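ingest -> fold -> write
write: protein_1
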Amino acid sequence: MHSWPRLRRGALCTSIEDFHASVVSCPGDARRCGTPVGPGLLLPRLFLRLVGLLRRRVRDPAPAKPKDPNSGLLTGTQLKKALATASYFPAGYAADPSLARDTGDTYQAPTTKSAANPHCAGLGATSWISLTGVEGVSFAQDSHINKNTSVELDQEIDVYRGTTATDVMKDVVKVVAECPSYTDSDTHSTVKVTGASTVGLGDEAYTITLTDSAWETGTTLIAARAGTAVVSVLSTDGSDNGATSAKKLADHVLASVKSMSGSAGQS
């Protein structure tokens, strides 16, 4: 009767290689081998090892693809369309091409700097929202100036990831606290800065008023949040320091942003 090769005493055959080794080490001398290992014992062990490998693969799935942090956020190209167009502005106003900018159909990397010690004179300039030290992933801005009176209406929309827009609104308040006044570089007079929360505009809003005895009229700035977007405007149009025209413009742009955000899936 044929005798199966045996392993050395105490050895276990756990693979084809082990089984092959047992055959080589026991060339016909059954007395030198240990426990018999035949097909009835070898194949079940190999089957169990294979099942174990398959189970590990099931338990350890491939890592999920990371979510795009800009998913659902409006691009600069879209924001540009949300700005008030030429037909919105009263007669005599014209857009200044040199002050029109946007981030196009791509996103820029967001950056954050401290809002402490801001350049306070920047409150009287376009893109004054940058004094917060936070740059979003997309933006669009432009300015319209009355060629007869030199008064201006500036508008800008910035979009941020996550809850950053809420932080920007807090930083606007901090900027005002850091800048109770500043010196006008043209008149060398003192500009007084005041600010207050504003209801009825977007999810939250803050209004800043700049006044100077050397000016014919003051300036009103408004920052208003709509989801992940912050609309900022500047107005010198009106005897009320531009307050009415600034609020009207902010409300108009906010409505456009909300309409576009809904179609883009922006919260």
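write: protein_2
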Amino acid sequence: MKKWFSITILMVLLILIFVLINSKSDYNGKIGEITEEYLVLYGLKLDPEADQSAPIIYFNIDTQVIGKGTAITDLKIGQEIKVWASRREDNIIANKIKIVREN
């Protein structure tokens, strides 16, 4: 009986760890610029002495928008977002964008 209980607890912990690792977004920040094809993502905390890179993230009709919006048209400058993305050639393509906070 103890053996099955231990195995069950171990499996639940492994599943929980897997879910937590895979649910972390690839990028997060505020939308600094947005066009019909891409957005520029600014960091939440800017360090004046650090090299600040602002990734250009492309989106398409397959990009899912969740959170405080449901469509690409709901994205606005200044919103805080999280992005799950993949790389195609040299471009970052958003698979899912979660609107976390409005301006």
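write: annotation protein_2
The mean pLDDT is 86.
The first strand starts at residue 27 and ends at 34.
pipeline exit 0
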